[in-house]
Amino acid sequence: MLIVAKIITAFVALLHIYFLWLEMFAWTTRAKKVFRNFPEHLFEETKTLAANQGLYNGFLAAGLLWSLFISDALWQFNVALFFLTCVLVAGIYGAISASKKIFVVQGIPALLGVLFWLASHYI
User: Fold this and answer.
1) Cα torsion 62, 63, 65, 69: sign
2) What is the DSSP track for 44-108?
3) Considering 16, 26, 29, 55, which has the largest number of Cβ atoms within 10 A of its Cβ?
4) Distance (Å) of CA 55 to CA 64, 115, 120
5) What is the mean pLDDT of each run of 10 residues along the chain (123 residues)?
């Protein structure tokens, strides 16, 4: 269970590194292909806003990756659970406020991570 929890945590971190790149460095190019429902003329106007959002995704990725390198099992569990829960809450909020797809892409992997960390800790 612990190995699966760590793999899922790494996967969620990689997703957020991708989000960082997309929002900070590829907002006016590649992001247009990812966010097809977003009006094309707004990409340039929202470039700074997207970069700020990407930075926050980078912080989530950093916290998730950091959790994988903590040697104390209890601290590792707590830090991983905290950052995965932050991602889960962001996924739920995104689904409510923007698109259900956000929960599928962001929330479900985080939820799986939380469940596997809990299972590895309590079972």
Assistant:
1) positive
2) HHTHHHHHHHHHHHHHHHHHHHHHHT--SHHHHHHHHHHHHHHHHHHHHHHHHHT-HHHIIIIIH
3) 16
4) 14, 26, 31
5) 97 98 97 92 96 97 98 98 98 95 96 98 89
Angle between the N-to-C axes of helices 73-97 and 108-122, in degrees from 0 to 180, rounded to the nearest 10: 150
Residue type, 102: I
Residue written as tokens 């079972």? 123
Indicate the burial class of 64 (C-beta count within 10 angstroms; 0-12, 13-18, 19 or more): buried
Return the amino acid letter for 73.
Answer: A
Give the number of other Cβ atoms within 10 Å of residue 78's Cβ: 15
Block residue for tokens 């950093």: 62
Q: What does the alpha-carbon distance between residue 80 and residue 26 come to, in Å, rounded to a whole number?
A: 28
Exposed, middle or buried, 8 (CB in 10 Å: 0-12/13-18/19+)?
A: buried
